[in-house]
Amino acid sequence: MSDCLFPGRTWPEGPLGFPMPDAAAKALDRILRTLPADDAHAYRHTIVTRGPTELNPGERSDVSWISTESVDRAGEVVLSAGMDDSQFRLNPLVTLGHDYDLPPVGRSAWRKRVRDGTLIGIKAKTIYPARPAAWPSSEPWLPDQVFALVQAGLLRGKSIGFLPLQTHVPDAAEIARRGWTEDVRLVIDRWLLLEYACVSLPANQYALVEAVSKGQVELTEPLRHALGLDEQPLAGTSEAELVAAIRRRIAELDLHQLIGQAVREALERARGRI
To answer: Which of 211, 234, 213, 239 is nearest to 224 (CA)?
Structure first.
């Protein structure tokens, strides 16, 4: 396992390809050795697109669904009662888009099973810490940027990374009893939560236009570059012209890639590397 720098320390790359403390990596390796080597037990990510159900600006936190018992695009259902977050609880850091080349953007205060009407799943509280006094003033503080994007409606999704521990193929009677669609091919009864991340959603990319026009998101140099607005002067440019330019550029881009690129460039510029 190669070394990887994450949250200020050198951690080994775990058996699933992302950094974790050595003890956790060894424990996970033992679990992997007990599981069948098939697709049903392969590590996977899934995204919930519902957005935060609570935003707490004073506390710099949100509460969001990170998993629901809805049928996903792969025809799978993840049962919330089967969550095991014992590994994640040891180091509950939240990333931006599962990108471990960036510093973490928050920490998870709790994760719990919730029923809201007919919707059942896992909700989690994410706290985006304030910039510490000791943090260099010239160094960007990524949690500030990410929480601003969450508030602006640009990072409405949460994506979990989990390892199925026990699965089964449902029969017609179970599908009918639970009210699932006929395309359900796999039920994940027990699963190990190992990571979750803030993610953007292509369906919400036009929220950027509204956020920019309201001044909720600053058009920094990296973001202007990613939007293709390097040659578009802000002075003397009407709001309608600026919004039209942003709309044209966003239509060509994946927002998740856009935000990741802009954040990485901002960090590299602040560190004097570009």
So the answer is: 234
Mark whether 251 and 156 lie in a shared domain.
no
112 and 185 part of one domain: yes
Cα 84 from Cα 113, distance rounded (Å):
11
- Domains in the chain, number: 3
What is the radius of gyration, based on Cα positions, of the chain? 20
Q: Are residues 146 and 257 in the same domain?
A: no
| Domain termination residue (choose one: 181, 201, 221) | 201
Of the candidates 183, 201, 219, which is a domain's last residue?
201
- 124, 65, 114: which is closest to 93 by C-alpha? 124
Report field, pTM of the whole predicted structure over 0.85: no
For residue 219, give its domain range.
203-270
With 0-12 / 13-18 / 19 or more C-beta atoms within 10 angstroms meaning exposed / middle / buried, residue 209 is middle
Pair (178, 75) in one structural domain: yes
Long-range contacts of 37-43 (CB under 8 A, 24+ apart): 40/164, 40/167, 40/186, 41/163, 41/164, 41/165, 41/167, 42/164, 43/16, 43/161, 43/162, 43/163, 43/194
Are both 241 and 163 inside the same structural domain?
Answer: no
* CB environment 93-111: b (16+ within 10 A), e (fewer): bbbbbbebebbbbbbbeeb
| Average pLDDT, consecutive stretches of 10 residues, N- to C-terminus, the chain (274 residues) | 43 84 88 92 87 91 93 89 94 89 92 93 95 88 90 86 96 92 92 92 43 52 52 55 58 52 58 56
